[in-house]
C-alpha cells in the first residue's frame, strides 16, 4: 500500500500535468464580448493583408510537432489489468460502468481496460481528473450503448437549478489518456423545435488531454459532442446531431468519420470556441463524410477566433451555399479561420461561400491533414 506521502506526491505530480480549465457553458444566447481588444494594423496595411499575415504565422506555428501549451505526452498502452462490465452479473465484475470506474484507485497511473459487454446501459458516467489511462472497450458500437437524457435545463442540486450544458453529458471524461473503442454514447433527448431554450443535450464531453476514439458513435441532437479541452483523435467514428453538434475548444483531428445531420430546418455542424490568437485549438476533418437532413452550416463562430478545416471530405447537398455563419457578429469575420481543401460532393462547391472563408492551398492545408496537428506521434501508438 502506498504511504500518505507517496499519495500526496503522485497527486501533486498528476495535477501539474493536467491543464487548468475553465468550465464553459455553450448556449444559444451566449454572445462573447470584445474582450480580445481591437486589432491594430501596421502602417500601409489593409485589414485583409493583416488577416492573411496573421493566418500564415499561425499555420507555421501549429505546423511544429510540439504545441507550446501542452506538456510532452507519454501514453501507457499495455493494460495492467482488465475489468468486465455486463448486464448479467455472472458474466462480469460489475453491472454498471460507473461502479467499475469507482473501483479504481483515486490516483490511477496504469492502463486499465474496462470491457463493456453488449447491452444498453442507462446511466450517467463521469471519470474524474486523477483516474487517467482508462480504455473503454465495447462489444461493437451497435451492441454496446451508454445512454441518458439530461439537458441544460434539467434541475440539479439541492436548489434544483438548471444543470447547464457542461453537466448534461451522458458520459464525461476529465482525465488524460482516455481511449474508447467500439461503443455508442447517446443522449436520448429528441431534436428540439427551432429556437427552443435550454435543450442543449450532450452525449459525450471530453475535458482531458490526449484522448482517442476508435469506431465509436456519438448520438444526440443539439450539442451532441462537447470537444471541450485538450488534444483528441477520432478515427472511423459516427457523429449525429442537429445544431452545433460538434463544439468546444479542443485541438482535434477527425479522420474517416461520418458526420450526419438530423436537423429539421437549419442546423450547424461545428461551433469551435477558440477565443484568442494565443490559443492553438481548432477542428480538422480529413477524409470524412457529411450527410443528413435540413440546411446545414459547416460551422458557426462560437469563439471570435474559431478555427475549422475540412479536407478530402465528401459533402452532401445539405450544406448551405454560404457554408459558415458569423454568430451574428460581423467582427468575427476578420478573426475566424474556416477552410476547405480538395473536398468533393454537391455540398462542397466553393462558389457561394462567404468571402471570409477560404479554399486552402497545399501549403495552408499541410499542418491540418496529418497527426502532427495534434502531436499524434507522441501519444497515438496503437
TrEMBL record:
Per the annotation, which location comes first and is thus the protein's main one?
Answer: secreted
Q: What is its EC number?
A: 3.1.1.11
Q: Specify the Pectinesterase catalytic domain's residue ranges.
A: 85-376
The protein's location, in the record's own words, is:
Secreted, Cell wall
Query: What domain of life is recorded for the organism?
Result: Eukaryota
Q: Which reaction does it catalyse?
A: [(1->4)-alpha-D-galacturonosyl methyl ester](n) + n H2O = [(1->4)-alpha-D-galacturonosyl](n) + n methanol + n H(+)
A GO molecular function held by the record? pectinesterase activity
- Signal peptide residue numbers: 1-27
Look up the record and name the pathway of this protein: Glycan metabolism; pectin degradation; 2-dehydro-3-deoxy-D-gluconate from pectin: step 1/5
Cited PROSITE patterns:
PECTINESTERASE_2 (PS00503)
Instruction: Kindly list the biological process annotations in GO that this record carries.
Output: cell wall modification; pectin catabolic process
Active-site residues from the entry: 244
Q: Which UniProt keyword terms apply here?
A: Aspartyl esterase, Cell wall, Hydrolase, Secreted, Signal
Q: Which family does it belong to?
A: Belongs to the pectinesterase family.
| Protein's name in the database | Pectinesterase
Organism, by scientific name, is Rosa chinensis
